[in-house]
Design goal:
Elements (H helix, E strand, L loop, with lengths): L2 H23 L1 H18 L7 H18 L2 H4 L17 E5 H4 L8 H13 L3 E6 L3 H4 L7 H8 L6 E3 L6 H12 L3 E2 L8 H4 L4 E7 L2 E5 L2
Parallel strand pairs: 1-2, 1-4, 2-3, 4-5
Antiparallel strand pairs: 5-6
Helix pairs in contact: 1-2, 1-3
């Protein structure tokens, strides 16, 4: 292999990796630019004859690029949701009673929890969400597990605790909040655990016009 051939291979590999990165970060912009370039090349060198295999090869490479860009192992390290800043590295944690929050807009709705965790992240907090095992049934989504909740909320799985069946998340989240000296986001009065929750700061709230509004900060 000559130096020129080796250099060509290296450049093509780097271009392929760069294309995958572009697809992951700006899928539709990348697709639009790709189509624009393809139309320009089509006009200059339409497929047929000697160029047929080149067009076929380019199409296969692009399809492979899109497939690789959507592999789960790469998606797991992708950027956080647009509009949501990453949680602070120092960990300004706050406990969220997820099973209570899903009812902040009336009927059980996972979007209420999404709005609350998004708002907390924008305030610089790192939400630690606790959920009863029954929460998925309240949402009529019995297949939801820890990772599915994490994906829906745009949070790492280690910030989601789906408590065992037959238990209540209240016990776990109160003990965690007390041990770590953290506030709790919930409208629950915890009347049956008044002594346990005594001294723990609680943040109440509602969903109003599609936004999370808090009381107690």
């Amino acid at each position: 292999m000559t130096a020129q051939t080796l250099l060509t291979v290296v450049v093509l590999v780097l271009a392929f990796v760069g294309y995958i990165a572009c697809v992951m970060r700006a899928r539709w912009i990348t697709l639009g630019l790709t189509l624009g370039v393809a139309l320009l090349i089509w006009d200059l060198s339409p497929p047929g004859g000697d160029t047929a295999f080149q067009w076929l090869g380019a199409g296969i490479v692009l399809m492979i690029g899109f497939w690789v860009a959507h592999l789960p192992i790469l998606q797991s390290g992708s950027a956080p949701k647009p509009g949501r800043p990453p949680a602070p590295e120092t960990g300004n944690r706050i406990v969220v009673d997820g099973t209570n929050v899903i009812y902040w807009d009336g009927d059980a709705d996972l979007q209420s929890l999404v709005l609350v965790t998004d708002a907390l992240c924008r305030r610089g907090f790192e939400p630690i969400v606790f959920l009863d095992a029954s929460t998925r049934h309240h949402l009529k989504e019995p297949s939801l597990d820890q990772h599915a909740f994490a994906d829906a909320l745009g949070l790492p799985p280690d910030q989601i605790t789906l408590c065992p069946a037959g238990t209540e998340a209240d016990e776990f989240l109160i003990n965690y909040a007390r041990a770590e000296s953290l506030p709790i986001v919930s409208n629950d009065r915890f009347g049956d655990r008044a002594q346990q929750v005594k001294g723990i700061k609680r943040i109440r709230g509602v969903i109003a016009h599609g936004k999370a509004v808090f009381e107690g900060f």
